[in-house]
Amino acid sequence: MKTVLVTGGLGYIGSHTCIELLRKNYNIIIIDSFVNNSIDSISQIKNLIRKEYKIFDLSITLKKGDIRDELFLDNVFIEAKNQNNKIDVVIHFAGLKSVNESIKKSLEYWDVNVGGTLALLNAMQKNDCRTIVFSSSATVYRHKINKQISEESELMPINPYGRTKQVIEMILKDKFNEKCNDWRIINLRYFNPVGAHESGLIGENPKINPTNLFPVIMNKMSLSERIPVFGNDWPTKDGTCIRDYIHVVDLAKAHLASLEFLIDKRSIFLSLNIGTGIGISVMEVINTFSKISNCKIQYYFDRRRGGDAPYVVADNRLALATLNWKPKKKILDMCKDTWNWHKKMIKT
Ligand code: UDP
Question: What DSSP line would sit under 94-139, residue for residue?
Answer without folding.
Answer: -S---HHHHHHSHHHHIIIIIIHHHHHHHHHHHTT--EEEEEEEGG
